[in-house]
Design a protein that fits this description.
Two copies of one chain form a homodimer.
Chain A (H helix, E strand, L loop, with lengths): L14 H18 L6 H11 L7 H9 L6 H13 L3 E4 L4 E4 L9 E6 L5 E3 L3 H13 L3 E12 L1 H9 L1
Parallel strand pairs in A: 3-5
Antiparallel strand pairs in A: 1-2, 3-4
Helix pairs in contact in A: 1-2, 2-4, 3-4
Chain B binds a DNA duplex through helix 4.
Chain lengths: ~160, ~160
DNA sequence: TTTGAAATGTTATAGTATTTCGAAACATGG
DNA sequence: CCATGTTTCGAAATACTATAACATTTCAAA
């Protein structure tokens, strides 16, 4: 991932490696915080990272069930855990979950969601963050968390659309 | 409502009038667009405006049922209609709905949600809007809609908390 | 007054998330 | 190594949120 400038995932990127890195980061973060990165949690995180698209809890559940029994609470517990550690974000407008690329940095969620291909990328813009903070403060509001969800078309889908 | 600076709803504001104004605005907007402001739609909007807090669809349903039969689709249809006209916004992180103060202006949703008293106020910040637009554009993304949901404490709850 | 479109009624069902309680796995101190 | 308390997981039930599908009614324009 380039620094400073977000790029949508290119089709040629090595996704197996991408997943492996995410799992490695997760392992490290859990270790640092004395949390257990159990088999279920690892599997759920891995399933989420299969694509750069948000995935629903019940979709995760279905996948899990292909290798044994599982019930909704199993998935939701894992998702809660992963969210608490910043490894996964919930996309409110989709009721779905996506892996976080920068779990080591504390940040608020800023998401670009492509309505065509469903890919979801994260912005890490201090500028957006601070403008929101400023405006909220001006209204006498103390911010605990801010979520930004941006719907539209990613670069790739935009290009394809203009071809026609 | 003051211009330029958002104020959280003060407890002494004349809420009956507030509701009446919202209904009058709705009536006008419907008329302008050749849409029917039916009894159900009016009632649902009125229920939503009872408080400046987001209200769930099933809560609206319960209220509706106090004066006759009603089923979920009735409520969701009215909510869809009201959202299409900008009279109501959906707060994604709460699965709930809140009335819009500025339905005549096209705008994206920017919400301040108090986690203590649940009151929800809307920002109308061009600055937030344009910064998000700019950053998305820089990422090659074409924005169709943006949602900002800010969780924290409103002025009033903040003050009360500091008393203790 | 007919008629076609929009709105509503009704039943069923899909989709998302949590509660509750009990069993198992794990880390830690003795 | 065992006892013990804590965390994690299993399992069943249920709550909450939203939509599908089709019948019926309402309304306005021809």
């Amino acid at each position: 991932m380039k620094k400073g400038k977000l790029e949508f995932i290119s089709s040629e990127h090595d996704h197996q490696r991408c997943i492996a890195e995410a799992l490695a980061r997760a392992e490290e973060i859990c270790a640092n915080r004395g949390q257990r990165f159990t088999a279920i949690r690892r599997k759920v995180l891995e399933l989420i990272w299969q694509q750069h698209k948000p995935i629903g809890a019940y979709e995760v559940l279905e996948q899990l069930q292909r290798q044994g029994r599982a019930a909704p609470p199993t998935v939701y517990r894992a998702l809660d855990f992963l969210q608490d550690l910043g490894l996964v974000h919930r996309i409110e407008s989709l009721n779905a979950f996506v892996g976080c690329n920068q779990p080591h940095l504390p940040h608020e969620g800023q998401f670009l969601i492509c309505e065509s291909c469903r890919i979801c990328a994260e912005l890490y813009s201090d500028e957006i963050h601070s403008v929101i903070e400023k405006k909220a403060f001006a209204a006498g509001f103390k911010v605990r968390q801010q979520r930004v969800e941006i719907m539209g078309l990613c670069r790739k889908c935009l290009k394809e659309r203009s071809k026609k």
